[in-house]
Predict the structure.
Amino acid sequence: MTQSSLTNSEPIREYHYLQPSTFWSIRQGFPKSLSFLLIAVSLIVPLLLWAVVSSLGWVSPIFLPSPALVFQAGLKMFTEDNLALDVLVSSGRVLAGFLAAAVIGVPMGLAMGTFYSLDSLFAPLVGTVRYMPVTAFVPLIVIWLGLGEPSKILIIMLGVVLYNAIMVADAVKFIPHEMINVAYTLGATRRNVVFKVIIPAAFPSVLDTLRVNISGAWNFLVIAELVAAQNGLGFKIIQAQRFLQTEKVLFCIALIGVIGVVIDYGLKSLSQKLTPWADQIRH
């Protein structure tokens, strides 16, 4: 068979070029102007739908008051019901519980991800307890710690601490073994590997874990403030619910959402400043 016949018998390859796309680009640059536009749409459209449904009377105001009524109720709560104090009290409880969960959960996760021995020791306990509802422990917590602030902080801490541990442990386990082996080849001790390889490599993931799980701390706030609370956003929600003051309930929920968004963007900005080398991994 001649060379020309071999060449002619080969199938012709067709090359398909990916068409450029701004909206559907995968992990590539995206215009900030379009990003801001989409953010505005995601916020404005639900508000417009809410306003239309409430103004047309499709749903009773007892169940869905208008955005204007909710905003007026919020202003009244700030001026007459001292809602600012409730915001500070709830923020303090969430901060205390979340810091306790970070102090306990992050080192536990680092230990579980680093040492198979400690993973075998803690993983069965963590894997079992994290499926137990925190609300089931509330009566025991009240018996053990009473009705004061420590019980509320403990409820928030229990709701977050094990998720911190598991997520940090998984982040450590994804560190390439090559990094550890190179450190040993260069003469590093186990202590050097832990403090100069594993912890720096896992640090961006630890910050992301804390940023994600702080939302869980706010979710457990309402449960915590069921325990004989006299103030706080969760207390306000429960109190308004008893008197069917839906506009106050919605405003407090929205306020928690706004606080959460501010905290999330603040932690994200802090994480980018502390670990700029991890931006490509995050984005």
Observations:
- The longest helix spans residues 83-114.
- DSSP finds 13 helices and no strands in the chain.
- Residues 70 and 251 are 6 Å apart (CA to CA).
